[in-house]
Design goal:
Blueprint: H1 12-18, H2 37-51, H3 64-83
């Protein structure tokens, strides 16, 4: 597919979040994230509805993972444009993100 999204290719999101490209094509990492039951239900409903689109020209995700990866990557790119002059944010020092309560200013 020609839109630059990660459908059917190696994980671009793993590179964006993990700082390194996947070891081999198709390698994926789980994202430790929680969403409300309503959000999860809407997400599943959306992906199933998009899978039913009978249009060969439609460029829709074929799986829940592809949909989530495309959405997260779109948000990353938006935040890079808005908050970092369109460039990727600098590589963080620690490998893993901190867990616990959100950091406040």
């Amino acid at each position: 597919m020609s839109n630059g999204l990660p459908f059917g290719q190696g994980s671009i999101l793993g590179k964006e979040l993990g700082g390194q490209a996947p070891v081999s094509p198709g390698t994926k990492e789980k994202i430790p994230a929680y969403v409300t039951p309503d959000t999860m239900n809407r997400l599943r409903n959306t992906v199933v509805a998009l899978q039913r689109i009978d249009d060969e020209d439609a460029d829709v995700p074929v799986s829940l993972s592809a949909y989530v990866e495309a959405a997260v990557l779109e948000r990353i790119r938006r935040d890079e444009r808005e908050y970092n002059g369109g460039k990727p944010f600098p590589q963080r020092r620690q490998k893993n993100l901190k867990t616990g309560p959100p950091v406040t200013k």
